[in-house]
Amino acid sequence: MNNNKKLRWGILGAARINQQLMPAIVAAENSELVAIASRRPGAAAETLAKYSPQQQGVTIYDGPEALLDDADIQAVYIPLSNHEHAEWTLRAIERGKHVLCEKPMALTVADIDAIETAAKKHNVVVMEGFMYRYHPQHARVRELLDSGLIGEVRSVRSCFSFMMQPARLYRLAEPIERGGGAMWDIGCYAIHAARLPLDDSPLAVTAMAKYTDTGADISSSGIIDYGDGKYAQFDFSFERARRAEYEIIGTKGGLKCHNVWAKQAETPVVSWWTESGRQCIETLQTSNHFLLEIEHFEDCVLNGKTPQLSLEDAKTNCRVIVAALQSAADGMRVQLD
Ligand SMILES: NC(=O)c1ccc[n+]([C@@H]2O[C@H](COP(=O)([O-])OP(=O)(O)OC[C@H]3O[C@@H](n4cnc5c(N)ncnc54)[C@H](OP(=O)(O)O)[C@@H]3O)[C@@H](O)[C@H]2O)c1
Question: Does residue 45 have its Cβ closer than 6 Å to ligand 1?
């Protein structure tokens, strides 16, 4: 049993993203990596050797089911493919595990409803892995907004893009219904970031998209209508130069977060201006948002804190994504209930 107050983690798959998350779990003071699973023989051990070679005593399981049977594991990190997230999140909850699930948590709002019900029943913490939100630059943005510096927020523009390497184009091979394409991969960030400064009651979405021959979306732009002339624009693509930014315009000025995916070595920059002529470019301290995400999760589990990103937030994001996909496919504005 766990006698040392550290959160005991299992990782449910040998995914590439473990390059970031595995060292974060190992480095977090109140976490301990105790197991990793993969359905592919040798892949879990290889992943461990590659991303956390110093870590001793990690149990290798030959699949997620076997890992969930380990009663000593308290929390699981789910880096499986997008269409598997909801199923394995539910299975983990039913075994009494706390769950950090990669984005997107699910492909339907109904699945997140089921996850929420199960999480309440089993009294576990469940969080969607939008790691960028734990970077202090967004708390700084919030602080600037709350100070009234740019007045009332009227519009947001978020842009996420990069040139997808040919070797990774397998992400486009899966149909959208199975979590393939740019929307479920990076569009979910663009929409999440665009929602950051506005209230959580979007009214409607209009979007357009370019599709590959396999039917996956590769580039998309859209507008979330919040009513009263408040709009959040999102734009993302696998075939444009790298950008990960958002800009917020208020009644008295504007501010911009220049590198939403700021890596540990990259200097985060937030700039702002006001109509009264003030302007500033703030360079903030570098941070590892993956580590901060893990530390926040362990704090929620071990100390009973409320997750910064709720399941309600996950549902709203999913609702907007599904509406945007429908809007792009049908060429129509989609009302949100
Ligand atoms: N937060 C972030 O910054 C970030 C960044 C990238 C991706 N993500 C998210 O993280 C999740 C995983 O993304 P990823 O790009 O790391 O996925 P990935 O490498 O394709 O792995 C996903 C799952 O597919 C299986 N798999 C891996 N390589 C395989 C192969 N060669 N053949 C067959 N199966 C294979 C693995 O399960 P088994 O080990 O059981 O076979 C693995 O858990 C996605 O939901 C994605 O949206 C998050």
Answer: no
Instruction: Calculate how far, in angstroms, residue 183's C-alpha sits from the geometric centre of ligand 1.
Output: 16
- Find, among 136, 137, 100, 130, the residue nearest to 115 by Cα: 100
Is 242:164 a contact under the CB 8 Å cutoff?
no
Ligand 1 centroid–CA 16 distance in Å is 5
Between the two ends of the chain, the Cα-to-Cα distance in Å is 46
d(CA 131, CA 192): 11
What is the residue with the minimal CA distance to atom 10 of ligand 1?
79
Ligand 1 within 6 A of 17 CB?
yes
Q: Which residue has the tokens 């493919």?
A: 81
Residue range 35-75, pLDDT digits in tens: 999 999 999 999 999 999 999 999 999 999 999 999 999 99
Ligand 1, residues 18, 46, 47, 80: which to mutate, most atoms within 8 A of Cβ?
80
Nearest to 9 by CA among 17, 23, 19, 105: 23
Q: Are 238 and 164 in contact (CB under 8 A)?
A: yes
Q: What percent of the chain has pLDDT over 90?
A: 91
- Length of the chain as a residue count: 337
Ligand 1 in reach of 179 Cβ (< 6 A): no
Strand order in the sheet with 153-163: 279-283, 269-274, 253-257, 239-250, 153-163, 231-237, 217-225, 204-211, 334-335
Distance in Å, CA 52 to ligand 1 centroid: 17
How far apart are the C-alpha atoms of 105 and 310, rounded to whole Å?
A: 12
Q: How far apart (Å, rounded) are the C-alpha atoms in residues 139 and 207?
A: 29
Residue 22 is which amino acid?
A: M
Kindly indicate the confidence band of residue 4, based on its pLDDT and cuts at 50, 70 and 90.
Answer: low
Question: How many whole angstroms separate alpha carbon 78 and alpha carbon 74?
Answer: 13
